[in-house]
């Protein structure tokens, strides 16, 4: 834990369920309801100007089934933070970060098509890498590994 | 009278001999195999020696479609259209493990071999293939072209699949 980590943890006390150091990255587990507040404070108080990624982890058999994972970078502090929050398969919704980071618009589209996480208030959740007509979420563990959805008819 | 005023040969042999040294590849490069394609087509390995030098970046001017790299389902319609835009006679080379069989990709995105979409004349194994394999494949393709029938005369009818029925 570096002094920056300590400052972040102290400032956000009570807004996360667990804090840890993961190979130099500060890991914060939070609740879905706290997401927007925590992210806005990270950005405005600690200079986390770069939104690096949002993705998800599918853990079948665990409750909640999905982890939504965010990475942020503060160029000023030279510090990375990872936020994780669990969402259930019945209600895989997360508030969008497009109000805080414009870059969230595209990255949430990818997480949406690959894992089926719905980002409420992101008004453009069309597929970004997959093609039109693709059904299902290919990075979920229950998507069969050899299931193909061809776009042109196969020969023979 | 000069010695070589005329010679006799078979028409298919003559046309095949002409065609096999005049391959115009269209490189459909999608992945890392493209680096190997660049190496094999430039000075050190030099496919120009085999008359297959000048990449045409329009399928309408090419007669050898080289599928170099991974083909995914989103690209399948593009490669299909590229193939259909090429004039007869045309040949297809599947360059590398991915174009041949999907390679080590077995997932929702990757076509398991470009021959699921378009007919392939010659396969080059390897990940990526050695330049020698590519040169070997070009030479095998040339041998095949030399042996093929070439129905170019008016009375030689063209079957729908491009082969001669005469």
General description of the model:
The complex is a heterodimer of chains A (156) and B (166). Chain A is an alpha/beta fold and 156 residues long. Chain A has helices at 3-11, 35-46, 104-115, and strands at 18-22, 25-29, 50-58, 66-74, 79-87, 93-95, 118-120. Chain A has a five-stranded mixed sheet with strand order 1-2-5-4-3. A two-stranded parallel sheet of chain A has the order 6-7. Chain A is elongated. Chain B has 166 residues and is an alpha/beta fold. Chain B has a single domain (15-45, 55-147), classed as Rossmann fold (3-Layer(aba) Sandwich). Chain B is built from five helices and four strands, in the order αβαβαβαβα. Chain B has a four-stranded parallel sheet with strand order 1-2-3-4. The longest helix of chain B has 17 residues, at 131-147. The radius of gyration of chain B is 17 Å and the shape is globular. The relative contact order of chain B is 0.18. The mean pLDDT of chain B is 86. The interface between A and B is medium-sized, with 14 and 16 residues.
| Tally of domains of chain B | 1
Given as residue ranges, the uncertain stretches of chain B (5+ residues, pLDDT < 50) are: none
- The separation of the N and C termini of chain A measures 61 Å
**Quaternary organization:** heterodimer
Please give the count of helices of chain A: 3
Tell me the major beta sheet of chain B.
Answer: 4 strands, parallel
Beginning-to-end CA distance, first to last residue of chain B: 37 Å
How much strand of chain A? 25-35%
Radius of gyration of chain B: 17 Å
The tally of helices of chain B reads: 5
* CATH topology group of chain B: Rossmann fold
For the record, the count of structural domains of chain A works out to 1
CATH class of chain B: Alpha Beta
Tell me what the CATH architecture of chain A is.
2-Layer Sandwich
């Amino acid at each position: 834990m570096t002094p920056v980590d300590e400052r972040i943890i102290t400032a956000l006390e009570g807004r996360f369920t667990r804090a840890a150091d993961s190979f130099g990255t500060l890991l914060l587990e939070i609740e879905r309801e706290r997401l927007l507040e925590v992210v806005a404070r990270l950005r405005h108080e600690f200079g986390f100007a770069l939104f690096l990624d949002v993705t998800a982890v599918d853990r079948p058999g665990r409750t909640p089934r999905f982890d939504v994972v965010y990475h942020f970078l503060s160029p000023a502090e030279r510090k990375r933070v990872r936020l994780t929050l669990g969402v259930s398969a019945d209600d895989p919704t997360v508030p969008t970060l497009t109000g805080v980071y414009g870059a969230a618009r595209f990255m949430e589209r990818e997480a949406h098509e690959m894992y089926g996480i719905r980002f409420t208030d992101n008004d453009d959740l069309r597929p970004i890498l997959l093609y039109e007509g693709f059904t299902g979420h290919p990075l979920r563990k229950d998507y069969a590994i050899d299931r193909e959805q061809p776009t042109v008819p196969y020969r023979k | 009278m000069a010695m070589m005023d005329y010679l006799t040969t078979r028409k298919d042999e003559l046309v095949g001999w002409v065609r096999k040294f005049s391959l115009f590849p269209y490189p459909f490069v999608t992945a890392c195999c493209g680096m190997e394609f660049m190496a094999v087509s430039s000075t050190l390995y030099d496919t120009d020696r085999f008359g297959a030098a000048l990449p045409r970046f329009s399928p309408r001017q090419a007669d050898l479609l080289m599928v170099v790299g991974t083909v995914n389902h989103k690209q399948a319609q593009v490669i299909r259209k590229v193939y259909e835009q090429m004039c007869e006679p045309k040949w297809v080379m599947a360059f590398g493990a991915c174009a041949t069989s999907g390679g080590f990709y077995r997932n929702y995105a990757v076509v398991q071999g470009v021959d699921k979409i378009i007919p392939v004349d010659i396969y080059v194994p390897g990940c990526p293939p050695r330049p020698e394999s590519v040169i070997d494949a070009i030479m095998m393709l040339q041998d095949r072209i030399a042996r093929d029938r070439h129905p170019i005369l008016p009375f030689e009818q063209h079957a729908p699949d491009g082969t001669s029925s005469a």
